[in-house]
Amino acid sequence: MIEYLIFLAISTATFALFALGLNLQWGFTGLINFGHIAFMTLGAYTTVLLSLKGVPLLFSAIAGAIVAALLGLVIGFATLRLRADYLSIVTIGTGELIRLVVNNQELPVGDAWVSGAFGVQTYTIPLDATPNLFLRLLMIGVLTFLAIVTFFSLWRWVKSARISRTNNVAKNNSSKQEFASRLGVGTILGLLTLAIYVAGVIGLYNYNPKAGLMLLALSVLAFVFWRLEFLVRSPWGRILKAIREDEEIPKALGKNVFWYKLQSLMLGGAIAGIAGAFFAWQLSAIYPDNFQPQLTFDAWIMVILGGSGNNIGTILGAVIYFAYDALTREFLPKIVPLDVERIGAFRVMFIGLILMVLMIWRPQGILGKKEELTLGK
After folding, report:
1. Is Hydrolase one of the keywords (predicted)?
2. Domain for residue 187, yes or no?
3. Minimal CA–CA distance to 28: which of 176, 171, 216, 228?
């Protein structure tokens, strides 16, 4: 149970990072990216191949993020001056093109060249050596700090909605709904944080390398979330939102809309590249088929579920997605008398039904704001 919770925490943190990059591009800037997996693929392979050449893991992961950002630069220069439809078409093609190139080319694995179809195995992952007791206690202290910061942030987030409800008389009903939403979400995330904290403490004390990877993934997720929240509330972030709503307005104010779009595409790609490094480290062996287009649409599901243009909502979407995946994988075969293939199709069909209902009942997502909807404008 402890190992499974650690596995789920790493998966959720990795894909929350992946979805945060997409949310920056789509939720805040309005860029339609259906090939987000391309950035993750480049990040994963760059990190792994450089680490096999002896480059330290930190610099390998940074290089993976830079290469993914450069892909955003290339795509942006090719498409951002055109209509938005072209961006979506090009990104779909780019995602598949990179996967097929990796599958059909020889890769420099160590001192030899190996066919990409055979994948890359036996590479180093972070914190795989058992640390001494002092370092383990230090890691538990870092995890404790992250848990305390998470609890405090959730409490402050819920409290801000309560204050808004108290001060807002004209829109009392909507304020009550927002407070109820935040209270429910805050409670769920708080309980999950507690469960992951307990599993992490046990896994770090009786050292499990995956627990160390979980701590690293959660730390990077917390840092990226913190900086993104700062950026999207800054003048830079307000310009991105203005571009999403109507790019002619910031153009009229003298803003270089193309440059801001390019920055968003590159930064979102770099974040996805970092997620690719964690994805590779968790798998311990990567193959081209690990990077199917389905992963892009999984990220879209997370963004839409939580609410586009809302970073907390994106993380919530990742939590809901992996909770749904774990629960249906475990309990659905006991309820629905179908074979393995049909069970898999049924799970995909059911989450599609959930999305359809959500789009009717709450098109802005669980935490999104209806006035900030951009799809279909």
Report:
1. no
2. yes
3. 228
Distance of alpha carbon 194 from alpha carbon 237, whole angstroms: 32
The DSSP 8-state label assigned to residue 121 in this structure reads E
CA distance 187 to 189: 6
For residue 160, how many other CB atoms are within 10 A of its CB?
13
Residue type, 37: I
Angstrom distance (rounded) from CA 287 to CA 163: 50
Burial (CB < 10 A; 0-12, 13-18, 19+), residue 125, is buried
d(CA 104, CA 179): 52
Rounded Cα gap, residues 222 and 16, in angstroms: 10
User: For residue 314, what are the CA distances in angstroms to 306, 357, 360?
Assistant: 5, 19, 19
Does any domain span residue 372?
Answer: no
Residue of 156, 165, 120 lying closest to 277 (CA atoms):
120
Tell whether 70 and 176 lie within a shared domain. no
Q: Answer whether residue 274 shows pLDDT above 70.
A: yes
Tokens at 294, concatenated: 């389905």
Per-residue three-class SS string for 105-168: CEEEECCEEEEHHHCEECCCCCCCCCCCHHHHHHHHHHHHHHHHHHHHHHHHHHHHHHHHHHHC
In a domain, 197, yes or no: yes
DSSP 285: E
329: Cα within 13 Å, side-chain hemisphere: 8
Q: Are 333 and 343 in contact (CB under 8 A)?
A: yes
Residues 6+ apart with CB under 8 A from 355: 301, 304, 305
Extract the tokens encoding 369.
Answer: 């704001």
Does residue 293 register a pLDDT over 50? yes
Question: Which residue is listed with tokens 């599901």?
Answer: 301
Name the 3-class secondary structure at 115.
strand
| Same structural domain, 222 and 350 | yes
Structure tokens at 26: 């789509």
Quote the number of domains for the chain.
Answer: 2
Token pair in block for residue 96: 């598949």
State pTM to two decimals.
0.91
The model's pLDDT over 89-116, given as tens digits with 9 standing for 90+, comes to: 888 888 899 999 898 888 877 677 777 8
Q: How many Cβ atoms sit within 10 Å of the Cβ of residue 145? A: 12
Q: Say if residues 60 and 277 touch (Cβ distance below 8 Å).
A: yes
Helix (H) or strand (E) holding 120: strand 120-121
Q: What is the pLDDT of residue 311?
A: 92
